[in-house]
Amino acid sequence: MSLRVVFMGSPDFAVPALAAIGAAGHEVIAVYAQPPRPAGRGHRERPCPVHAYALDHNIPVFTPVRLRDPADQQTFADLGADIGVVAAYGLILPQVILDAPRLGCINIHASLLPRWRGAAPIHRALLAGDRETGVTIMRVVKALDAGPMLLEARTPIGARDTAQDLHDRLAALGADLIVEALAGLQAGLLPDVPQPERGVTYAHKLEKDEGRLDWSLSADELERRVRGYTPWPGAWLLHEGQRIKVLAAEVREGAGPPGTLLDDRLTVACGSGALRLLTVQRAGKGPMAAEAFLRGYPLAAGLRLTE
Protein backbone atom coordinates (compact mmCIF):
# COMPACT_ATOMS: atom_id res chain seq x y z
CA MET A 1 0.00 0.00 0.00
CA SER A 2 1.43 3.37 -1.02
CA LEU A 3 1.53 6.50 1.09
CA ARG A 4 0.50 9.97 0.00
CA VAL A 5 3.69 11.95 0.54
CA VAL A 6 4.41 15.65 0.58
CA PHE A 7 8.12 16.13 0.01
CA MET A 8 9.82 19.25 1.34
CA GLY A 9 13.39 19.85 0.18
CA SER A 10 15.53 22.10 -1.96
CA PRO A 11 19.18 21.22 -2.77
CA ASP A 12 20.88 18.38 -4.65
CA PHE A 13 21.14 16.38 -1.42
CA ALA A 14 17.35 15.90 -1.36
CA VAL A 15 16.85 14.77 -4.97
CA PRO A 16 17.87 11.08 -4.57
CA ALA A 17 15.42 10.72 -1.68
CA LEU A 18 12.58 12.25 -3.70
CA ALA A 19 13.34 9.91 -6.59
CA ALA A 20 13.55 6.86 -4.30
CA ILE A 21 10.19 7.58 -2.68
CA GLY A 22 8.49 7.61 -6.07
CA ALA A 23 10.39 4.52 -7.25
CA ALA A 24 9.22 2.65 -4.13
CA GLY A 25 5.62 3.11 -5.25
CA HIS A 26 4.55 5.96 -2.99
CA GLU A 27 2.51 8.83 -4.39
CA VAL A 28 4.32 12.15 -4.13
CA ILE A 29 1.30 14.43 -4.20
CA ALA A 30 3.25 17.69 -3.90
CA VAL A 31 6.72 19.14 -3.49
CA TYR A 32 7.59 22.16 -1.37
CA ALA A 33 10.87 23.89 -2.24
CA GLN A 34 12.68 27.18 -1.86
CA PRO A 35 11.54 29.83 -4.38
CA PRO A 36 13.56 30.27 -7.59
CA ARG A 37 16.49 32.64 -7.20
CA PRO A 38 18.71 34.59 -9.63
CA ALA A 39 21.70 32.51 -10.73
CA GLY A 40 24.39 32.46 -13.39
CA ARG A 41 25.84 35.31 -15.39
CA GLY A 42 22.46 36.49 -16.58
CA HIS A 43 21.02 36.43 -13.04
CA ARG A 44 17.91 34.73 -14.34
CA GLU A 45 15.68 33.06 -11.81
CA ARG A 46 16.46 29.38 -11.59
CA PRO A 47 14.52 26.69 -9.70
CA CYS A 48 16.39 24.75 -7.05
CA PRO A 49 17.28 21.09 -7.84
CA VAL A 50 14.23 19.59 -6.09
CA HIS A 51 11.92 22.05 -7.84
CA ALA A 52 13.50 21.20 -11.21
CA TYR A 53 13.09 17.45 -10.57
CA ALA A 54 9.44 17.90 -9.67
CA LEU A 55 8.76 19.88 -12.84
CA ASP A 56 10.43 17.17 -14.94
CA HIS A 57 8.21 14.53 -13.30
CA ASN A 58 4.94 16.47 -13.34
CA ILE A 59 4.70 16.82 -9.56
CA PRO A 60 2.89 19.95 -8.30
CA VAL A 61 5.33 22.40 -6.70
CA PHE A 62 4.74 25.03 -4.01
CA THR A 63 7.40 27.64 -3.21
CA PRO A 64 6.17 29.82 -0.32
CA VAL A 65 8.65 32.29 1.13
CA ARG A 66 7.52 31.14 4.56
CA LEU A 67 4.73 28.99 5.98
CA ARG A 68 3.20 31.35 8.52
CA ASP A 69 0.38 32.57 6.29
CA PRO A 70 -2.91 30.83 7.24
CA ALA A 71 -3.78 30.50 3.55
CA ASP A 72 -0.54 28.60 2.85
CA GLN A 73 -1.15 26.41 5.89
CA GLN A 74 -4.65 25.60 4.71
CA THR A 75 -3.34 24.71 1.25
CA PHE A 76 -0.92 22.28 2.86
CA ALA A 77 -3.62 20.72 5.03
CA ASP A 78 -5.98 20.36 2.06
CA LEU A 79 -3.47 18.10 0.30
CA GLY A 80 -4.52 15.28 2.64
CA ALA A 81 -1.03 13.84 2.99
CA ASP A 82 -0.30 10.68 4.93
CA ILE A 83 3.19 11.92 5.75
CA GLY A 84 5.55 14.81 5.15
CA VAL A 85 9.18 14.05 4.30
CA VAL A 86 11.70 16.85 4.86
CA ALA A 87 15.25 16.97 3.48
CA ALA A 88 17.23 20.21 3.71
CA TYR A 89 14.14 22.28 2.96
CA GLY A 90 15.38 25.55 4.43
CA LEU A 91 12.22 26.76 6.18
CA ILE A 92 11.05 26.36 9.77
CA LEU A 93 7.81 24.36 9.86
CA PRO A 94 5.09 25.72 12.16
CA GLN A 95 3.31 23.24 14.41
CA VAL A 96 0.16 23.41 12.29
CA ILE A 97 2.19 22.10 9.32
CA LEU A 98 3.80 19.35 11.41
CA ASP A 99 0.39 18.19 12.60
CA ALA A 100 -1.36 18.18 9.22
CA PRO A 101 -0.20 14.83 7.74
CA ARG A 102 -1.77 11.72 9.26
CA LEU A 103 1.63 10.29 10.25
CA GLY A 104 3.29 13.63 10.92
CA CYS A 105 6.55 14.84 9.35
CA ILE A 106 9.91 13.11 9.32
CA ASN A 107 13.31 14.48 8.38
CA ILE A 108 16.37 13.09 6.59
CA HIS A 109 19.32 14.58 8.48
CA ALA A 110 22.94 14.12 7.38
CA SER A 111 24.55 13.31 10.72
CA LEU A 112 24.44 10.82 13.57
CA LEU A 113 22.24 12.72 15.97
CA PRO A 114 22.51 14.30 18.44
CA ARG A 115 25.92 15.23 16.96
CA TRP A 116 25.79 18.02 14.40
CA ARG A 117 22.29 19.37 14.60
CA GLY A 118 21.89 22.35 12.31
CA ALA A 119 22.64 23.68 8.85
CA ALA A 120 26.02 22.21 7.82
CA PRO A 121 26.44 18.76 9.40
CA ILE A 122 28.44 17.25 6.53
CA HIS A 123 31.10 19.96 6.55
CA ARG A 124 31.35 20.25 10.33
CA ALA A 125 31.86 16.51 10.80
CA LEU A 126 34.74 16.55 8.35
CA LEU A 127 36.27 19.76 9.72
CA ALA A 128 36.19 18.36 13.26
CA GLY A 129 38.06 15.23 12.24
CA ASP A 130 35.18 12.84 12.97
CA ARG A 131 35.93 9.24 11.99
CA GLU A 132 32.38 8.48 10.89
CA THR A 133 29.10 10.14 10.06
CA GLY A 134 25.77 9.01 8.69
CA VAL A 135 22.09 9.75 8.18
CA THR A 136 19.36 9.87 10.80
CA ILE A 137 15.64 9.71 10.07
CA MET A 138 13.83 11.58 12.82
CA ARG A 139 10.49 13.12 13.58
CA VAL A 140 10.33 16.87 13.04
CA VAL A 141 9.61 18.93 16.14
CA LYS A 142 9.76 22.66 16.78
CA ALA A 143 13.23 22.50 18.38
CA LEU A 144 16.07 22.37 15.84
CA ASP A 145 16.82 18.76 14.81
CA ALA A 146 15.81 17.54 18.26
CA GLY A 147 13.02 15.11 17.39
CA PRO A 148 12.90 11.40 18.26
CA MET A 149 14.94 9.13 16.00
CA LEU A 150 13.48 6.37 13.86
CA LEU A 151 16.43 4.96 11.90
CA GLU A 152 20.10 5.65 11.28
CA ALA A 153 22.81 4.44 8.91
CA ARG A 154 26.56 4.97 9.30
CA THR A 155 29.50 5.50 6.97
CA PRO A 156 33.21 6.03 7.72
CA ILE A 157 34.87 9.31 6.78
CA GLY A 158 37.88 8.46 4.64
CA ALA A 159 41.24 10.22 4.83
CA ARG A 160 40.69 11.67 1.34
CA ASP A 161 36.98 12.42 1.54
CA THR A 162 35.90 15.93 0.62
CA ALA A 163 32.63 17.52 1.64
CA GLN A 164 31.36 16.74 -1.87
CA ASP A 165 32.27 13.07 -1.50
CA LEU A 166 30.43 12.84 1.82
CA HIS A 167 27.46 14.79 0.43
CA ASP A 168 27.00 12.36 -2.44
CA ARG A 169 27.41 9.27 -0.26
CA LEU A 170 25.03 10.53 2.41
CA ALA A 171 22.45 11.58 -0.17
CA ALA A 172 22.39 8.01 -1.51
CA LEU A 173 22.30 6.60 2.02
CA GLY A 174 19.41 8.90 2.90
CA ALA A 175 17.47 7.78 -0.16
CA ASP A 176 17.71 4.13 0.89
CA LEU A 177 16.94 4.90 4.51
CA ILE A 178 13.81 6.98 3.86
CA VAL A 179 12.26 4.13 1.84
CA GLU A 180 12.98 1.78 4.73
CA ALA A 181 11.50 4.28 7.18
CA LEU A 182 8.28 4.70 5.21
CA ALA A 183 7.81 0.95 5.08
CA GLY A 184 8.46 0.67 8.81
CA LEU A 185 6.02 3.43 9.67
CA GLN A 186 3.34 1.83 7.50
CA ALA A 187 3.82 -1.44 9.36
CA GLY A 188 3.94 0.25 12.78
CA LEU A 189 7.41 -1.17 13.41
CA LEU A 190 9.41 2.00 14.08
CA PRO A 191 9.21 3.20 17.67
CA ASP A 192 10.32 6.74 18.49
CA VAL A 193 13.71 6.78 20.23
CA PRO A 194 14.48 10.02 22.10
CA GLN A 195 17.83 11.60 21.30
CA PRO A 196 20.46 11.36 24.04
CA GLU A 197 20.85 14.52 26.07
CA ARG A 198 24.62 14.20 26.04
CA GLY A 199 26.70 14.71 22.91
CA VAL A 200 24.68 17.51 21.32
CA THR A 201 26.73 19.67 18.94
CA TYR A 202 25.61 22.30 16.44
CA ALA A 203 26.68 22.54 12.81
CA HIS A 204 26.59 26.26 12.23
CA LYS A 205 25.91 27.60 8.75
CA LEU A 206 28.95 28.00 6.52
CA GLU A 207 30.11 31.55 5.88
CA LYS A 208 31.61 32.58 2.55
CA ASP A 209 34.92 33.81 3.95
CA GLU A 210 35.66 31.11 6.50
CA GLY A 211 37.65 29.14 3.93
CA ARG A 212 40.65 31.47 4.23
CA LEU A 213 43.61 29.41 5.41
CA ASP A 214 45.06 30.50 8.73
CA TRP A 215 48.66 29.27 8.71
CA SER A 216 48.90 29.49 12.51
CA LEU A 217 46.73 26.36 12.69
CA SER A 218 48.16 22.86 12.45
CA ALA A 219 48.74 21.25 9.08
CA ASP A 220 46.28 18.49 10.01
CA GLU A 221 43.50 21.00 10.64
CA LEU A 222 44.26 22.97 7.48
CA GLU A 223 44.23 19.81 5.38
CA ARG A 224 40.77 19.01 6.76
CA ARG A 225 39.67 22.53 5.89
CA VAL A 226 40.76 22.06 2.28
CA ARG A 227 38.61 18.93 2.08
CA GLY A 228 35.81 20.29 4.24
CA TYR A 229 35.33 23.43 2.17
CA THR A 230 35.34 21.61 -1.19
CA PRO A 231 33.46 22.62 -3.30
CA TRP A 232 32.03 25.54 -1.26
CA PRO A 233 33.06 28.00 0.05
CA GLY A 234 36.48 26.76 -0.98
CA ALA A 235 39.78 26.97 0.90
CA TRP A 236 41.94 29.88 -0.21
CA LEU A 237 44.91 32.14 0.43
CA LEU A 238 45.83 35.64 -0.66
CA HIS A 239 49.04 36.64 -2.45
CA GLU A 240 49.53 40.22 -3.60
CA GLY A 241 45.78 40.75 -3.59
CA GLN A 242 45.02 37.64 -5.64
CA ARG A 243 42.87 34.91 -4.18
CA ILE A 244 44.26 31.46 -4.85
CA LYS A 245 41.96 28.52 -4.14
CA VAL A 246 43.44 25.33 -2.74
CA LEU A 247 41.61 22.29 -4.06
CA ALA A 248 43.85 19.52 -2.73
CA ALA A 249 46.67 19.36 -0.19
CA GLU A 250 48.57 16.90 1.96
CA VAL A 251 50.33 17.06 5.31
CA ARG A 252 54.13 16.97 5.19
CA GLU A 253 56.97 17.24 7.65
CA GLY A 254 58.53 20.68 7.97
CA ALA A 255 58.81 23.67 10.23
CA GLY A 256 59.19 27.41 9.96
CA PRO A 257 57.34 30.66 10.59
CA PRO A 258 53.66 29.98 9.78
CA GLY A 259 52.85 30.89 6.18
CA THR A 260 56.42 30.52 4.90
CA LEU A 261 57.09 28.57 1.71
CA LEU A 262 59.62 25.88 2.63
CA ASP A 263 60.55 24.76 -0.88
CA ASP A 264 59.74 25.23 -4.56
CA ARG A 265 56.83 22.72 -4.42
CA LEU A 266 54.29 24.87 -2.55
CA THR A 267 54.98 23.37 0.86
CA VAL A 268 53.85 25.89 3.48
CA ALA A 269 54.88 25.96 7.14
CA CYS A 270 51.95 25.82 9.56
CA GLY A 271 51.51 26.27 13.30
CA SER A 272 52.69 22.67 13.52
CA GLY A 273 53.84 20.64 10.55
CA ALA A 274 53.58 21.74 6.93
CA LEU A 275 50.98 21.61 4.19
CA ARG A 276 51.88 20.86 0.57
CA LEU A 277 49.42 22.41 -1.86
CA LEU A 278 48.77 19.87 -4.61
CA THR A 279 46.05 21.49 -6.74
CA VAL A 280 45.36 25.21 -6.86
CA GLN A 281 43.30 27.65 -8.91
CA ARG A 282 43.63 31.37 -9.62
CA ALA A 283 40.62 33.55 -10.39
CA GLY A 284 39.56 33.08 -14.01
CA LYS A 285 41.78 30.01 -14.47
CA GLY A 286 41.17 26.28 -14.28
CA PRO A 287 42.50 23.99 -11.56
CA MET A 288 46.23 23.27 -11.91
CA ALA A 289 48.74 20.93 -10.33
CA ALA A 290 51.29 22.78 -8.20
CA GLU A 291 54.12 22.22 -10.68
CA ALA A 292 52.14 23.67 -13.60
CA PHE A 293 50.91 26.56 -11.47
CA LEU A 294 54.45 27.52 -10.43
CA ARG A 295 55.65 27.63 -14.02
CA GLY A 296 53.27 30.50 -14.72
CA TYR A 297 53.16 32.00 -11.24
CA PRO A 298 56.54 31.49 -9.56
CA LEU A 299 56.63 31.59 -5.77
CA ALA A 300 60.07 31.18 -4.24
CA ALA A 301 61.04 29.37 -1.06
CA GLY A 302 61.17 31.77 1.85
CA LEU A 303 58.16 33.82 0.73
CA ARG A 304 55.64 34.55 3.52
CA LEU A 305 52.00 33.94 2.55
CA THR A 306 50.65 36.02 5.40
CA GLU A 307 48.82 38.86 3.63
Please give a structural write-up.
- This protein is of the alpha/beta class.
- The chain has eight helices and 16 strands.
- The strands form four sheets. A seven-stranded mixed sheet has the order 5-2-1-6-7-9-10. Strands 12, 13, 14, 15 and 16 form a five-stranded antiparallel sheet that branches. A two-stranded antiparallel ribbon has the order 3-4.
- Helix 1 runs parallel beside helix 6 and helix 5 runs antiparallel to helix 7.
- It starts with a strand and ends in an 11-residue tail after the last helix.
Compact summary:
The chain contains 8 helices and 16 strands. It is α/β, with parallel strands linked by helices and 307 residues long.
> Unreliable segments (pLDDT under 50, ≥5 consecutive)?
none
What is the SS-derived class? alpha/beta
What value does the average pLDDT take? 96
Return Rg in Å: 22 Å
**Head-to-tail CA distance between termini:** 63 Å
Largest sheet: 7 strands, mixed
Instruction: State the helical fraction.
Output: 25-40%
Please give the count of helices: 8
General form: elongated
User: What's the helix-strand series?
Assistant: EHEEEHEHEHEEHEEHEHEEEEEH
The portion of residues forming beta strands comes to: 25-35%
Spatial strand sequence of the major β-sheet: 5-2-1-6-7-9-10
Overall strand count? 16
